[in-house]
Structures are given as structure tokens and as C-alpha cells.
Amino acid sequence: MIHTDHLILRPWLDSDLDALTALNDDPAIYQWLAGPFTREMNAASIQRQQGFQAEHGFCYWAVVEKASGQLIGMAGLMPVTFDAGFLPAVEIGWRLSSAFQGKGYATEAAKAALAHGFGPAGLDEIVSFTVPHNKASRAVMERIGLRHEPAMDFDHPRLPEGHPLRRHVFYRVRRGATS
Question: Per the confidence metrics, is the pTM higher than 0.85?
């Protein structure tokens, strides 16, 4: 588990399925994810994250707000599993319930994940990407020290041509480049 001032980042439990399903059913969330996830997709996501945790020592952890004890999202690190010109790579990412956005929690969780990546996980670089108009995520990327590399922007191979979320902007940070 990783503790920050306001958050706990912890491995996923099977009992988190209802909270994850509610999170991924929020239109403010799934607008960036090509639609809502079914309960089965969320169960598979928990299993996948548990597998990444067991294999790599990191995943997109469950994010719990300390004050309320509520699971409010996910944040962490995950190996990129699709074919791209920047492989091999580990991505940093976050997703918070809309009720908890705008409180600085995404940045707080991302900083903790970045510190874990360059600390215990021993990574040399971490990447991130999103659609160009996801300004909130791009701002978090920049606040934690990632830099946009326009020459590396790409069309996401898991989305069909013409899909409005296919184009992605690419960010990267190397060990020692963050403050």
C-alpha cells in the first residue's frame, strides 16, 4: 500500500467490483474511455490489475480517500500491452470519480505512483497518453513532470479509424527528470 496525505493506493480486492462498476459507469469518466464498461469487463479489469501487481509489483491501484474510506478511483502504473512505436513502456494513469475531481487527488496519486515507479519498481522512464482534448489529464501529466513529445503522438491501435478518441498525445519522463 502507498499512503499519501489524503489517499491510500492499494491492490484491488474482489469486493471492489461494485465500486469499480459505479466509477466506470460515470459519463464524466467513460467519455474518455470509449463508453461504459459492463460488470463483467470491470471484474476482468480487477483480475488483470491483480495479475499486474503479482507479476510487476505495481498496477493501477484502487484509490481510497482516507477521510471517508471510500474507493474513489484508480491510479498507478501498468505495462503498455498494445503494439506501439514506444515499446517496451510502462504507463502512468489515473481515473477518479467525478465527485472527487478538482481536489488535487489525481496529482497526489500520480506523484505517489511516479515515486514508486522510479523508486521500488526501478523504472528508467514512464509514459502517459490521452486524447488531445482531455485537458485535465494533460495538466496532471505536466504537473508531475511528464513532457509532451508531439513527434510520438499516435492513433490508438485498439480504436477503429474514425473513432473520435483514436488520436492520442504522448508524454514521457525519464528517471531523474522530475523534481
Answer: yes
